Amino acid sequence: xxxxxxxxxxxxxxxxxxxxxxxxxxxxxxxxxxxxxxxxxxxxxxxxxxxxxxxxxxxxxxxxxxxxxxxxxxxxxxxxxxxxxxxxxxxxxxxxxxxxxxxxxxxxxxxxxxxxxxxxxxxxxxxxxxxxxxxxxxxxxxxxxxxxxxxxxxxxxxxxxxxxxxxxxxxxxxxxxxxxxxxxxxxxxxxxxxxxxxxxxxxxxxxxxxxxxxxxxxx
Amino acid sequence: xxxxxxxxxxxxxxxxxxxxxxxxxxxxxxxxxxxxxxxxxxxxxxxxxxxxxxxxxxxxxxxxxxxxxxxxxxxxxxxxxxxxxxxxxxxxxxxxxxxxxxxxxxxxxxxxxxxxxxxxxxxxxxxxxxxxxxxxxxxxxxxxxxxxxxxxxxxxxxxxxxxxxxxxxxxxxxxxxxxxxxxxxxxxxxxxxxxxxxxxxxxxxxxxxxxxxxxxxxx
Lengths: 219, 219
Description:
Two copies of one chain form a homodimer. By secondary structure, chain A is an all-alpha fold. The first copy, chain A, has one domain (21-206). Chain A has helices at residues 23-45, 52-76, 89-97, 109-134, 140-164, 173-212. In chain A, α2 (52-76) crosses α3 (89-97). The first copy, chain A, is elongated and about 70 Å long. The termini of chain A are far apart.
């Protein structure tokens, strides 16, 4: 039986099969697919006479939605990905990422829970956000706010549980900073910016409404 | 050393001190303090010429905010509550509640994380919601929506992690249904109702804004 590279060393992973793809293979497939999606959504969004900000947001929601559904969705429903011997891309992604956080290979309940909520609820909701922005739905901001807040809550649970459990799930400090910190940083910064923007837009809408009717009835 | 009553039986709790207060003592103190707060907020809210719905919401936010800060805040920052020999009320609450979910006594990382976010962020935010409703702030709905969504996310993490870990943390089925299910049910039903109401109010505000200016600029 092959020894796995993950920390803690006594993590029990019977049937572990080592990575077939290199880190650069895995990252370049992810980067180029993401770039393809973003480019397609950018071109497509040009048809809707939207502001540049709205078009960037449509790209983000398409990218993050597909990441949640495909990448994270595969993880949630594939508890034995570390045994995969076929070189299947999605299994390779999680074998590689587990070097930065072995709780993925070890099937930590907190990680599986957060990824489950993200893949099943936030993924489809992100794709709905692309549609909502494109068609100018009245629920566009509150939907984007809800998903962003969910992403922030998930990331908070992800890091706080790790700290409480000793924050020692990385093979080495390169993987710690590149995968565990680096790969997740976008899901703190971007949802935070979007949540603040939506909060402000929603407050502005209520001020408009309040100014319009002297006695604000809906409030 | 006293044997603890919790499940799993091999849960290691050195220095455990048994409950001093009875279940009816603990519940009656909680019920009467809650009733006192709700009554005071109800009377106080009468000064603000608010609708009955808004006054009920102010009572809810005061109740849930103080529960988050005092009860759950104590738990988060008192890892050794199960050793308390003084009969201190808040320690007794968590010794008793642990009969329904021993992850509290066992300091499960997922539970501590959710309770931490709830006590530190959602607690103060709930009290801010009382003020926001009373003074008709433009951020009133989005704030209530954000807290409700946080409560729902927290409850989802709470139950899903338990299920993934075998759902066997209750002393018996009475405590399972009374504490683990019953005591948490309000924090599913009420946040869900409030979140849906806020969602609708916010959509309505954008429809008003959209109808007012033919070319919706803010959107």
